[in-house]
Amino acid sequence: MTEEKSAAKLRQKELFLKKENGYDKMDEASLAGMNEYCESYKHFLDNAKTEREAVKAAISLARKEGFVPFKRGMSLKPGDRVYLSNRGKSLMLATIGTRPLDEGVQICAAHIDSPRLDLKPYPLFEDGGFSLLKTHYYGGIRKYQWLSVPLELRGTIIRRDGSSVEVTLGGEPGDPFLVIPDLLPHLANAQSEKPLGKAVDPEAMNIFLGSRPYPDTEVSERLKLAALNLLNQKYGITEEDFLSAELCAVPAYSACDVGLDRSMLGAYGQDDRVCGYAALKGLFDAKAPGKTAVCILADKEEIGSMGVSGMQSQAFDTFIDDLCGCLDAHIRTCYEHSFCLSADVSACYDPNFADVYDKRNSSFINQGISLCKYTGSRGKSGSSDASAEVMGYIRGILNDAGILWNVSELGKIEAGGGGTVALFMANRNIDTVDAGVPVLGMHAPFEVTGKLDCYMTYLAMKAVYEA
Ligand code: MN
Ligand code: MN
User: Fold this and answer.
1) Nearest residue to 48 via CA among 234, 248, 235
2) Separation of 420 CA from ligand 1 center, angstroms?
3) What's the 443 CA to ligand 2 centre distance in angstroms?
4) Which of 295, 296, 403, 429 keeps 20 to 30 A from 422, CA to CA?
């Protein structure tokens, strides 16, 4: 009897896929590597609250790693490291491999824009004793989450004379914060009756900028004047300068550890800078690639990857074509032999909202990088759906490198849906699969990830570049 049982157990061990908590497989060295990686990731997050800041922070790190600006027609040899900033809003980097570009490149593509509140073109007005800023949300936010949250202002203003000024209000220690106060519960009876998505009027998401009037009782709009006066003193701007500006309100706190055991990491904008940083650091640390390794940190993913700095832009094709030009290869041949890891976050299983997940096909915390064969909604609509061969290929890379990984769906069928840049890479005739870090509270002003998953995602990117 006992012998039969142990035979069955053995058979089970041979045949069953075992999903384990990654901490059971981490040795001391891996844990130390994970903690060191996550500290550097937190530091990156604090310096990268917009796509522009992320590009700047990434370039500054890349230069220290020996990357130089790419110039069309430059001579390149294996081991050379180059980067190209696309208008300061997206970034492409490459480490030249030993094999010809016609044999393809290994790409990790992540995005560095995150949901936020942009200022409208005519933002400034006064009402009720306050100066206020009108906002227009960017990306798929749940509006109620952004009220009564400390905010800061980041962005760029092009002044009338063409000069540019960087705005970081709230970015320095001791800086004041801004806020959109929420409605008090005592007066929320009518609002509480509304569906959640309708409870907050986006036209009422106005940021409180100040309350002290300009000290001259003779003029009207003294609150607006006082605000503009301060902005003029600090940034040298007038009201018309708002018309040529990109100003974003983003959460004002720094990245931090989460949990008594510090196993998690909380911050604004982890979607998708958690994969962006992994793609970047993986490229830095990848040893002597055979195929050329390419990292792209794209903009505009949260609003459809459109525009000149989004993943649909020909800026990427131009970069690859220019690399091919330098190395005597053809872009179409290069693409058809290339592989892309579309690095974006997935939905971490959340026991508080269990009914939106298929528990058998969800990404759980501490199981490593999560592959998504397909995203989209309903019948996989809008997904590029990686082939069995592509799944087999990435599975081989991850297993060979000893990386913890799993495969997941975003959530239950018809619970909702979402997409990434994957289809835009696949449309280019590049074999592509989605993979990334599972996130709790995705798109909230404070997103949570597992440190182990962040680290495994970095190791996975490194392995893809080295494959
Ligand atoms: Mn994303
Ligand atoms: Mn997103």
Assistant:
1) 248
2) 6
3) 6
4) 403
